[in-house]
Design brief:
Structural class: alpha+beta
Number of strands: 6
Number of helices: 6
Order of helices and strands: EHHHEEHHEHEE
Strand content: 15-25%
Helix content: 25-40%
Largest sheet: 3 strands, antiparallel
Distance between the termini: 21 Å
Radius of gyration: 17 Å
Length: 198
Amino acid sequence: MLPPNIILLPATNDDGPALASTMTDSFSGSDIAYHLVWGGAEEGTHDKVALFLFTPVIKEYQVTYKAIDVSKDGRIVGFATWRLPRKIEGEKKKGDGGLPPIPGINRDLFDAKQAGSAPAYERDVDEEQDMRIATSLLDQGKKSADKLTAKWWCLSTPQAVKTYEKNGWKVVERHDTDLTKYGGEGLYSRAWMVRYPK
């Protein structure tokens, strides 16, 4: 159950900058590869790139829920985004989408982290935030997926795998990036996960 000061609402297009900032705060504080990728870029670069994911927030095939703290003037304290199943018309042409060249980011590591990963846009909630918020956001998504009798695919960061597993996802495949090749330590292991409708 959510704390009484937290409310879940569908996100609006006006929430784009706050969602991008929340994503940056979460990844910069919890993702071991964040500073290796983004550390050389100008401050605010990740926010600008993340905002691209939320321009616009409301899309026919994408659902975003925000958790707001009413005791802090409605500040967004977490969110979840997922894509609905859809048929994609036509073939994707080389050069469509992706990250443009950005000064100061480690593009090789960025690309290595993304390699082998099918599109997945489920968002992890910052570990410092109340886990009841994360669970409530996941519950909202599970209800939507179950209603559509759809499989829910998720590309998880290393720190969120256990949370997804507790909520019914199964690891289908892992993609490991050796951070020592980029000046870091250890492996960065993303998990491609699926949850079947109930």
